[in-house]
Design brief:
The chain is an alpha/beta fold and 338 residues long. 34% of the residues lie in helices and 21% in strands. β16 and β17 form a beta hairpin. α10 runs parallel beside α12. The two termini are 38 Å apart. The chain binds iron/sulfur cluster.
């Protein structure tokens, strides 16, 4: 369905069907979502995997008209952080999966290769995720990424997971959460008091890349406005120049993007900056390229190392060094993580 790229239109133009596990029916979040989409056709199911893991689904075809699946998560409330993701020096690095899949549709998104379906699974038993996090916190401090396999802030109008986790983290001195997003929907959490235990992490990309490869996401300008407001309100904000894509004229695009960013964003108020070159599990990439033939960035002659594909080492180093040189004009070295 057509979209004007706003979160509102994205969450309003989809979800003609809602599949609901019988055991999920009575949860307040299920009731909230069903109430939000009164015209959606409801289908009761036994287990979300019956629908989500069905064979022969076409991810990109489903992306045009995503449906919702409401489920109760029974195990794996926490996962150990992937070695492909930066841990920012934290020893106990975890992520969770409150929602599977994303309202956006970036060309390079690994979810297309990881999941059999583009439908969005929402786990309605958030309290169980919180309880497991508390259990882990009793043993050691935690750095927890809550928006990895989705974009939670873009979905905040449907279920306010961001608000809940920010409020939960506020009282946990040993917990640091990262909320990663491309959304400009900062206003959905702007009423909350900033918490030092929370990092709002925005992905920043050149506008040309957003238009071509980060479909449906807010423009650079709108992201920067959201970032500016969050900093002004006193939040810890991280900028993520990740994934860097090696496209034609990448140098001039990223240089202009960095200049535009720091014309608007006060560098001294940033928590930190993350830089990462495109990389992906090689099995995911091979699954994606079988079904997505219209995106040239996926067909680069990548180098494969230990099951991960990325640009050849010299090109990776060239890109990282280019970004570092540009970023260091505005920021202290110590704030930049690779
Ligand atoms: S915003 Fe992130 S999770 Fe969502 S489609 Fe893009 S890369 Fe995937």
């Amino acid at each position: 369905m057509p979209s004007n790229g706003s979160e509102k239109s994205l969450v309003n133009n989809h979800f003609s069907h809602i599949y609901i596990e019988k055991q999920a029916l009575e949860y307040p979040d299920s009731k909230r979502i069903v109430h939000k989409y009164p015209n959606a056709i409801r289908v009761l199911i036994g287990d979300y995997k019956e629908v989500f893991n069905r064979p022969h689904q076409r991810f990109q075809f489903q992306k045009r008209s995503m449906n919702l699946i409401l489920a109760v998560k029974k195990d794996n409330f926490l996962y150990s952080g992937s070695t492909q993701a930066p841990d920012f020096g934290h020893r106990h690095f975890y992520y969770n999966s409150l929602i599977m899949n994303c309202v956006y549709n970036c060309d390079y998104c690994y979810l297309q290769g990881m999941y059999p379906s583009a439908n969005i699974v929402v786990f309605v038993n958030n309290d169980d995720f919180i309880a497991e996090t508390k259990r882990q916190l009793a043993a050691h401090p935690m750095y927890l990424c809550i928006s990895y396999d989705t974009d939670l802030l873009a979905f905040e109008k449907v279920v306010p997971f961001c608000s809940r986790w920010i409020e939960f983290a506020r009282d946990q001195s040993d917990l640091k959460i990262e909320l990663r997003t491309k959304s400009s929907n900062y206003k959905a959490i702007a009423h909350l008091k900033p918490s030092t235990n929370v990092i709002l992490a925005w992905t920043v990309s050149p506008q040309e890349i957003i238009e071509k490869y980060e479909k449906e996401t807010p423009s650079l300008k709108r992201r920067l406005e959201a970032i500016g407001s969050a900093i002004k309100d006193g939040w810890n904000v991280r900028l993520c120049f990740d994934p860097l894509l090696r496209v034609d004229r990448w140098q001039s695009m990223y240089a202009a993007c960095i200049d535009q960013t720091f014309r608007l964003i006060p560098a001294d108020k940033l928590h930190d900056i993350s830089v990462g070159v495109f990389r992906m599990n090689s099995d995911y990439l091979s699954r994606i390229t079988k079904q997505r033939t219209n995106s040239e960035i996926l067909y680069y002659p990548f180098e494969k190392t230990d099951g991960t594909v990325s640009y050849p080492q010299m090109e990776r180093e060239e890109m990282t060094q280019f970004l570092l040189t540009k970023l260091e004009k505005y920021n202290e070295k110590e704030k930049i993580f690779i």
